Amino acid sequence: MGVRGYKSPVRARHAEDTRRSIVAAATALFTEQGYARTSVAAIAAAAGVAVNTVYTSVGNKSALIMAMSEDGAADAVAVETERRIGACSDPRKILRILAEGTGQVRRRRQDALAILLDNRNADPDVAAAAEAAVRAVRDRLKVAAARLIAVGGLREGLTAKQVEQTLWFYFGFEAWRTVRDFGWSWKDATDWLAEQATRALLPAGG
Question: Which of 85, 129, 139, 141 could bond 65 through an S-S bridge, CB–CB 3.0 to 4.6 Å?
């Protein structure tokens, strides 16, 4: 009779903590030194682990940059935002939830996103990770667009594609980067983007 494998919760938490520390160290070094100039050895030293631990926990540099992207896609705020949208039947509130949620994720992940967006044309690894990040956000916005269409109340004549594209225009990476580059506070940016998306998608007085 075979012995059933046992997975220790303590060991699993330790492994996840180690992985999180490694990705955080990589993010900090990529920000400070650039992706190309950062070595796995430097990341290991910053995380306080052996070089081999980096490879066994996450992988090489391309895996590290992709892990940054995947962690952003799995951000707890993004997951909760999608849940709240799915439970809401008011289109104006949905747009507000979306503005607040995308803004919070953008704020929490701004260093990692800056690495991806600023270096995607300089390295194929970064380009792949940036593409994955964009795809993850657009997929979530597609879900939000479907919910908006399902609850109704949008301007007449809008197609599903137009709703998706409008959400990306107002809540995608470049929208947040632009308003923040203007020097706006996160609150002011959130309020403005929510209002502009509302005007674009809902009928006057909607």
Answer: 129
